[in-house]
């Protein structure tokens, strides 16, 4: 699943391949931009902004693309076979004399004036992996909705941008915070944000996403994807449930012991009814 660190690494590689280069081929395979030919434009730089990728051209235009749940950019040496998926899933091709950058299943493919990038990314909170990261501002935005559940608030890119579901889940575990705790009740909110950021920083230069420090499959996450398995710290079975507004629910995992919370804020403990969160019956 793409997270901010995935986009960060992809943008870094794309920037190495494309910056200063003139496109020999530049296709956007989305209906509203199908007639746009980027051939002949020179790439100034490629930068990540949360889970958005901004490819800036020297003529003052920016191509914005978004990964959402399933998108990705692949970089191939000229002449190598493209292997990111079927041709119909390709949304963009940016090619130079040396490299083919191919965007699969990208979303929100948009061309905007570079001076007007704010119209597409201006709503985002401080970028966890950005050079202008601002902890105080991120915490201020989180605290402006004190009744929001922390597991929802951390994923809201208007508060801080970059973290996806994996780092949300793991950051909450590492800090011992229950996903359904109110923002106002989180004892050390700056600490939670900084620990979540540290997990992303530790992974941004590699494709693996380990939050335990162990890169072995099955040992790389504390609770994410580990429903019913014993917690590495205390042995309690890991729980799994849906969290978030209708239609945007994300699967969350937590250890009911390490992330124990006051019964008053634990919906399972308070009601005894598994309506919210709803534990899932299907396997991970
Ligand atoms: Zn535990």
From TrEMBL:
SMART domains: Fapy_DNA_glyco, H2TH. SUPFAM superfamilies: Glucocorticoid receptor-like (DNA-binding domain), N-terminal domain of MutM-like DNA repair proteins, S13-like H2TH domain. Residues 2-89 form the Formamidopyrimidine-DNA glycosylase catalytic domain. Belongs to the FPG family. It comes from Geodermatophilus amargosae. Residues 222-260 form the FPG-type domain. Signal peptide: none annotated. This is DNA-(apurinic or apyrimidinic site) lyase. Keywords: DNA damage, DNA repair, DNA-binding, Endonuclease, Glycosidase, Hydrolase, Lyase, Metal-binding, Multifunctional enzyme, Nuclease, Zinc, Zinc-finger. GO terms for biological process: base-excision repair. Its EC number is 4.2.99.18. One of its GO terms (molecular function) is oxidized pyrimidine nucleobase lesion DNA N-glycosylase activity. Pfam families: Fapy_DNA_glyco (PF01149). InterPro entries: FPG_cat, FPG_N, H2TH_FPG, Nei2_N, Ribosomal_uS13-like_H2TH, Znf_DNA_glyclase/AP_lyase.
């Amino acid at each position: 699943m793409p997270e901010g660190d995935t986009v960060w690494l992809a943008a870094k590689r794309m920037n190495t391949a494309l910056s200063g280069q003139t496109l020999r081929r530049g296709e956007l395979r989305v209906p509203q931009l199908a007639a746009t030919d980027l051939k002949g434009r020179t790439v100034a730089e490629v930068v990540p902004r949360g889970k958005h990728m901004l490819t800036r051209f020297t003529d003052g235009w920016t191509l914005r693309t978004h990964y959402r749940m399933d998108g990705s950019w692949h970089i191939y040496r000229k002449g190598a076979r493209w292997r990111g998926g079927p041709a119909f899933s390709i949304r963009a091709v940016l090619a130079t004399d040396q490299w083919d950058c191919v965007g699969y299943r990208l979303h929100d493919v948009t061309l905007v004036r570079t001076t007007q990038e704010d119209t597409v990314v201006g709503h985002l909170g401080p970028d966890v992996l950005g050079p202008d990261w601002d902890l105080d501002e991120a915490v201020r935005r989180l605290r402006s909705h004190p009744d929001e559940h922390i597991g929802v608030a951390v994923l809201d890119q208007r508060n801080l941008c970059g973290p996806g579901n994996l780092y949300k889940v793991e950051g909450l575990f590492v800090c011992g915070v229950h996903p359904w705790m109110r923002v106002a009740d989180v004892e050390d909110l700056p600490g939670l944000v900084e620990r979540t950021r540290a997990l992303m920083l530790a992974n941004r230069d590699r494709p693996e996403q380990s939050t335990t420090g162990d890169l072995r499959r099955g040992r790389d996450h504390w609770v994410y994807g580990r429903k019913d398995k014993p917690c590495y710290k205390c042995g309690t079975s890991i729980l799994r449930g849906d969290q978030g507004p209708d239609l945007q629910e994300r699967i969350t995992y937590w250890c009911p012991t390490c992330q124990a919370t006051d019964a008053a804020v634990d919906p399972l403990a308070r009601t005894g009814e598994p309506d919210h969160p709803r534990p899932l019956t299907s396997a991970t």
